[in-house]
């Protein structure tokens, strides 16, 4: 089997996640992406009438999902990228539910990570994985290109689109696979506030080969380019496409 390309650096990935706690101490810290993901998972479980027992929640730094599931009677284990290598077999298995929030977009081997989730479920167990997908942050991308000028650098992650996600679920052997996407729209008066919101939520760069920091002139070009997309109210509406993958492990256990 071919080794997947090394796009993301595990150490940088852990560092990005580690900074969340400190940034969330700020009174105006953003948390709308994780809040949307938690609400969506609970809605999906209610819709399919799945009452999880033994549950693993990965990546929910807010703690909200685990707390809500425990109130419903679930036995909840929690993990983040510091404790769990999602590209390796899970140390525990036989989970009735695995919910992964905001982490799978920065693994190097996404097909392998999806297989490991399936294998950590008990037969009939359900998995739900959400992360920021393709089509997100278009104005930020344009601003970074403008800042770099004639020598653009790789500053933002490659992102998975919904069609590729559906194919990956089938390859990973998930039963009843579903891939869907929803859009969050958030308005900003400055590029700096958008970047701050990304850092608050652990959505900063974890690229293995990070680009050099923008110089002062380049940063000013990026700021100006970002504001060119502003509407009559002076605000730029940025989009976050939240991709969600869901499915089950076959009752046959494979």
Automatic annotation (TrEMBL):
Does the record carry Electron transport as a key word? Answer: no
Identify one Pfam family in the record.
Methyltransf_23
GO annotation, biological process: methylation
Q: Which UniProt keywords apply?
A: Methyltransferase, Transferase
One GO MF annotation is: methyltransferase activity
* This protein's record includes keyword Transferase: yes
Organism domain of life: Bacteria
Coiled-coil annotation: which residues? none
Stored InterPro entries: Malonyl-ACP_OMT (IPR050602), SAM-dependent_MTases_sf (IPR029063)
PANTHER family given in the database record: ARGININE-HYDROXYLASE NDUFAF5, MITOCHONDRIAL
| Name listed for the protein in its UniProt record | Methyltransferase domain-containing protein
């Amino acid at each position: 089997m071919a080794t997947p390309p090394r796009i993301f650096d595990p150490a940088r990935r852990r560092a990005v996640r580690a900074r969340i706690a400190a940034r969330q101490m700020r009174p105006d810290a953003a948390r709308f992406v994780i809040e949307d993901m938690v609400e969506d998972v609970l809605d999906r479980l209610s819709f399919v009438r799945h009452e999880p027992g033994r549950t693993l929640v990965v990546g929910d730094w807010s703690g909200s999902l685990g707390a809500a599931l425990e109130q419903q009677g679930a036995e909840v284990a929690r993990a983040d990228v510091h404790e769990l290598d999602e590209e390796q077999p899970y140390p525990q298995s036989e989970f009735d539910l695995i919910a992964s929030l905001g982490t799978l977009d920065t693994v190097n081997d996404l097909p392998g990570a999806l297989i490991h989730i399936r294998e950590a479920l008990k037969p009939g167990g359900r998995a739900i994985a959400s992360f920021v997908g393709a089509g997100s942050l278009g104005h930020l991308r344009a601003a970074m290109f403008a800042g770099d000028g004639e020598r653009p650098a790789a500053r933002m992650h490659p992102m998975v689109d919904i069609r590729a996600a559906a194919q990956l679920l089938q390859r990973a052997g998930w039963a009843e696979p579903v891939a869907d996407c929803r859009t969050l729209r958030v308005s900003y008066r400055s590029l700096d506030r958008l970047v701050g919101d990304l850092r608050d939520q652990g959505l900063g760069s974890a690229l293995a080969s990070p680009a050099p920091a923008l110089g002062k002139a380049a940063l000013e070009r990026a700021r100006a380019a970002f504001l060119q997309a502003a509407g009559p109210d002076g605000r730029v509406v940025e989009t976050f496409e939240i991709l969600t993958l869901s499915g089950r492990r076959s009752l046959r256990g494979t």
